[in-house]
Design a protein that fits this description.
The protein is an alpha+beta fold and about 260 residues long. The protein has eight helices and ten strands. Strand 2 and strand 3 form a beta hairpin. Helix 5 runs antiparallel to helix 6. The protein is globular and about 50 Å long.
């Protein structure tokens, strides 16, 4: 588990410093003397050979993770897989990729120009997973991509890093329901993602989720610094399956709405 912890610590440092500075406040509100259990992280990429899902999965597979589920988000033109470690305490990993070929020729050409700037050697070091943007980008190009796909704009602006971490509600003693966590967060000034309802999922699908709306963070574009949506924090409550074990997968309809936590 040492290598798992090292990788997630590095992802956490990048996430809290660059993408979601408010994560520390969430911890202050929810920690009960023990570190919060991280249910999963999510990573975003483009489905181009240089940077596709398989490239992001490789460093996790190298430390024992295995693919455990596949997901399709037709409206957002995304494909995703989730990965699990044999040690159940290790966070799950959810990796999605934008199906670039399903978009306009302008978006395709723009994204390929960005990805072609990525040095191949950078992708061989697991540090790329929390290394941010590996291409130059001006603000007008960010806006152009965002107009067609919020996901494309977000990824172009931020590059590689954890889009979100996820607090496991199952470990908490003070709170047993996601609504209670949402109420506390609202009381402390956080905005909750209400797309599809503030709680996505149900006991019937064995998973309930909610999330904050993304922090607005400064991004260094080639023509100046602008504030754009960064990372967010998610909360998950899992229910036991017939064998008594907690459900470990994801629900497409819920995940589809969680993606919208980075909407402007």
């Amino acid at each position: 588990m040492e290598r798992v912890e090292q990788l997630f610590n590095a992802l956490w440092q990048d996430y809290t410093q660059r993408l979601c500075p408010s994560a520390g406040q969430v911890h202050d509100l929810l920690e009960e003397g023990e570190p919060l259990l991280n249910d999963h992280i999510a990573l975003r990429t483009f489905n181009l050979p240089q940077v596709g899902l398989d490239r992001l999965a490789a460093p996790f597979i190298a430390i024992g993770y295995k693919p455990c589920g596949r997901y399709h988000f037709e409206a957002k033109k995304l494909y995703a897989e989730h990965f699990e470690h044999p040690n159940p305490l290790a966070p799950k990993v959810f990796i999605s990729e934008l199906m670039v070929g399903q978009f306009s020729s302008l978006l395709q050409e723009t994204v390929r120009d960005l990805v072609n700037q990525v040095p191949e050697e950078a992708m061989h070091d697991p540090a790329f997973l929390y290394g941010g943007r590996l291409w130059d980008l001006d603000y007008a190009t960010y806006e152009l991509l965002s107009a067609e796909s919020e996901y494309a704009g977000w990824l172009a602006a931020h590059g590689f890093g954890a889009n979100h971490f996820t607090v496991s509600i199952n470990q908490l003693e003070q709170f047993t329901e996601i609504q209670e966590v949402n109420h506390l967060l609202r009381h402390n000034g956080f905005v909750i993602n209400e797309s599809g309802g503030e709680v996505k999922g149900s006991p019937e699908v064995m998973l309930e989720q909610s999330s904050t709306m993304a922090d607005r963070v400064p991004v260094n574009f080639s023509d100046g610094v602008r504030e754009v949506p960064g990372g967010f924090y998610e909360f998950a409550k899992r229910y036991p399956t017939a064998d008594g074990e907690l459900y470990r997968g994801f629900v497409e309809a819920s995940a589809d709405k969680i993606f919208e936590s980075t909407n402007q």
